[in-house]
Amino acid sequence: MAVPDVAGRNFWGGRTYVRGQGPTELDNHGSQRHLGWLLRDPDGFVEELSWAAGGRQILLERRTVAVRTVSQVADGCWALDFTTALTNVTGETVTLGSPATGGRPGAGYGGFFWRAPRRPEPPRVFSADGEGEAAVHGRASDWLALAAEDWTLVFAGATGDTRADPWFVRTGDYPGVGSALAWDRRLAIAPADTVTRRIVTAVADGRLDREAAARIGAQLSDKGATV
Predict the structure, then answer these.
(1) Cβ atoms of 140 and 180 closer than 8 Å
(2) In 3D, which of 110, 96, 109 has the Cα closest to residue 185?
(3) Model confidence pLDDT, tens digit, residues 170-195
(4) InterPro entries attached here (predicted)?
(5) CA angle 139, 130, 127 (to 5 degrees)
(6) Calpha distance 216→206 (Å, rounded)
(7) Whether the predicted model's global pTM rises above the 0.85 cut
(8) Which end of the chain, N or C, is surrounded by fewer C-beta atoms within 10 Å?
(9) Cα separation values, 4 from 18, 30, 54, 102, Å
(10) Phi-psi region for residue 28, left (φ > 0), alpha (ψ -120 to 50) or beta?
(11) How does DSSP assign 29-82, residue by residue?
């Protein structure tokens, strides 16, 4: 869970993109720091984190991670249930952005991100509405699947707000999938307000077809019966 621009501070890591200059090094990096556990169980946890930069806290995050079962779909399949709730604690409006909302069209990363292992051949990527990187990148869909020869990941937005966010997808340079908080405009969080997103990711052995991925995606959403 990382955002490249929170009120002008970089919570992504690495180099910072500057419009008109390209990637460069800026002294604007923030940090996520663990504050405490609200719950720790064998199948998950609830954690509080401080997003701070420049000597002040900007966001308070409550992060919930849990393991879920995925029934009657595929052997060796389980799901990671991830919820993030970001609360603005500054007393003034805070905005979140990405390179796509700062002058470079088509980037759009920032938020939940899963980087998958490389394979000799790029994985197949498809959603409920299209197939191939060009067809799914930058578009919203209830679920999205990334399928290699020996594994498949099925990502599902488990709330309406999450499903409205476009998917960030890469298969050529590296395989990775993210859910973009700020695709074509900055996301504003008013003082004391909270932005919540929930993504459930199924991890399955083997390459699943569209029908199996669709069944999993339906189970993982709050439209289904298992979350």
Answers:
(1) no
(2) 96
(3) 998 899 999 999 998 899 999 999 99
(4) DUF6807
(5) 75
(6) 14
(7) yes
(8) C
(9) 11, 10, 15, 11
(10) alpha
(11) B-EEEEEEEEEEETTEEEEEEEEEETTEEEEEEEEEEEEEE--SS-TT-EEEEE
